[in-house]
Amino acid sequence: MTATKLSVNLNKIALIRNSREGNFPDLIAHGRTCLEAGADGLTVHPRPDQRHIRASDIPALAQLLQEWPDAEFNIEGNPFANALGSYPGFMELVAAQPPHQCTLVPDSNDQLTSDHGFDLAKDGKRLQPVIEKLKSLDIRVSLFMDPDLAQIERASDIGADRIELYTGPYALAHGRSDTALDGMLQSYAAAADRARELGLGVNAGHDLNLDNLGDFLRQVRAQEVSIGHALTVDALAMGLTTAVSAYRRICQTSAA
Questions:
Q1: Could you tell me if 9 and 227 are in contact, meaning their C-beta atoms sit under 8 angstroms apart?
Q2: What is the pTM of this model?
Q3: Which domains occur in the chain, in start order?
Q4: Residue 201 pairs with which residues in a beta bridge?
Q5: In the predicted model, what is the mean pLDDT of residues 43-69?
Q6: What is the C-alpha to C-alpha distance for residues 9 and 213, in angstroms, rounded to an integer?
Q7: Predicted confidence (pLDDT) per residue in 178-188, tens digit
Q8: Pairwise CA distance, residues 179 & 21, whole Å
């Protein structure tokens, strides 16, 4: 199987920058370092409060990615997030600077971090025209999903290109009893297999780290993982280049 691609989420670097005036650390310089270290792409999740990635970061990041034609730009977010201050609204933001992929996430404005996948029985109908709009802009559409087979079938029905499996529960279970972990991994593997049967690509992300990533990828065939928080924390001890290389090594050697 082809190695899993690593997309580095830059949100936490932007969060540190925003804690002071000025541009330190330099988000674009750190994005460049990630790409030079072998990252397959960059991910950002601009929220309306712009507590980390800002709308104004997007054009410069898109320009950076042009220097790496094989790397991808992935913008995550709630497609129903409206304009707030200098944040233009999610759909307006990505229409102005179309990325390679949009990962749509059902998070609210006051949510600390993404913590569940879409309920497409509730949101599927209003997501369908959003997906059609994004695809008309030549943007691949991935939906943030729990490993629920019925929900994944709905993702296919409304026209998504991929799903991103929300791996928070797996990360929480990692290190517990083998029986509990095995059952968790089987549910993710079954979800990924069903997605592929339906013609969907499979991404994964949330709380993946150097300890649990390999075990996940040895059981679940993922085309791409998006990792930011743990990688940034590891970079404090290892350096950013070494941290990216360590995660990339696992992606290349742990394919299911």
A1: yes
A2: 0.94
A3: 5-253 (3.20.20.70)
A4: 162
A5: 97
A6: 15
A7: 777 888 999 99
A8: 49
